Amino acid sequence: MISPVLPTYARAPLSFVKGQGPWLETSDGTRYLDMGAGIGVCSLGHAHPTLIAALETQGRRLWHTSNLYEIPNQKALAEKIVANTFADTVFMTNSGTEAIECAVKMVRKHFSHADQPERVEIITFQGAFHGRSSAGIAASGSAKMVDGFGPVLSGFVQVPFADIDAVRAAITNKTAAIMVEHIQGEGGIRVFPCADMRLLREICDENGLLLVIDEIQSGMGRTGKLFSHEWSGITPDIMTIAKGIGGGFPLGACVATERAALGMVAGTHGSTYGGNPLACAVGCAVMTEILSDGFLENVSRLSGHLRQGLESIVATHPKVFTGVRGEGLMLALQCKVPNMDVVHAGYDAKVLVVPAADNVVRLLPPLNMETFELDDALWRLEEAANAVEAKL
């Protein structure tokens, strides 16, 4: 008999009732150090007092009106994003998937508006994850994502990861855009080299294409910059944001230059819940915290400390791990053993990590952890590695 909750998740046998900072607690009081942060969502940890205050204050005033009316909190959050990015305009969503949908529509509307309706194809990269909507799975193109869901939405061309020659060869008179994650999250924390990001920008400029950067997992301070593409010194035409921007409250955004957004006028896109007063109150609070003096510099300091500790674990356990990769506080341990062995050993050591493709475990901790908390996590990961190694 099917369960009341549709069984689309392979859930761990854990359930949490309370969280505080980087810690989660079960009903019997057992505490786990959360180095996954809800898959990079809880950017400020659990039960952050500033976010609680923002939510409670707004909750007593007004929850929802819909986008039939002006929403001051939405305007305030959009202004914060525009003031701190390349963007001129923002469309608020409830999730990363919805942000991707908006980006795809914006790309196609841009060229339709420019009297080039034949330009509908978007080049993406193998290993990419752009959500689980029809457009999202078509953009990824992997068998795991699309099998059983055909016919797959047309208009996406996949090329090998970071293969610039393949990108150039894939461009035709139908090409509209290139869409890329600077750091593939679900794909295994694979970093697209900054030099190649700059080449993508050049290719788009040379061919009149739009560059779309998916920062849903890598953005909002996770790499020590507000958005990870900043390390490459370029700007996209369109960018998608979610996860960390809401600190745990469902929120996302599709942001763009004025030129890229031409054609997106009244009636071309919409959302009932997107950008509602509650979500944007929390989003404003998250942005204020992450943009506060010294916050991003501290992320870089913490990331160096964590990476050094992980490299030490890899060196001590060569039968379990082969290396560390990633940037900032978006890191992964490359596993020699099945990555789920490490995840399960982590449960026993009371530390939570997240599996991903290419046989890695991800570490996406809250951005405001203390050094001693990272040391605690490293000790627990060492215990997990010892347990895995003992079974080899």
Ends: how far apart?
38 Å
| Assigned CATH class of the largest domain | Alpha Beta
Query: Residue ranges: pLDDT <50 for 5 or more in a row?
Result: none
Task: Tell me the number of helical segments per DSSP (H or I, 4 or more residues long).
Answer: 12
* CATH topology value of the largest domain: Aspartate Aminotransferase, domain 2
Portion of residues in beta strands equals: 15-25%
Question: Which percent bin holds the helix content?
Answer: 25-40%
Structural class assignment: alpha/beta
* CATH homologous superfamily heading of the largest domain: Type I PLP-dependent aspartate aminotransferase-like (Major domain)
Topology of this structure?
Layout: E1 18-20, E2 23-25, E3 31-34, H1 37-40, H2 49-61, H3 72-83, E4 89-93, H4 96-113, E5 121-125, H5 134-140, H6 143-146, E6 156-159, H7 164-170, E7 175-180, E8 183-184, E9 190-191, H8 194-207, E10 210-214, E11 238-241, E12 252-256, H9 277-290, H10 295-316, E13 321-327, E14 330-335, H11 339-348, E15 351-352, E16 354-356, E17 360-363, H12 371-390
Parallel strand pairs: 3-15, 5-6, 5-7, 7-10, 10-11
Antiparallel strand pairs: 1-2, 2-3, 4-12, 8-9, 11-12, 13-14, 14-17, 16-17
Helix pairs in contact: 2-9, 3-9, 10-12, 11-12
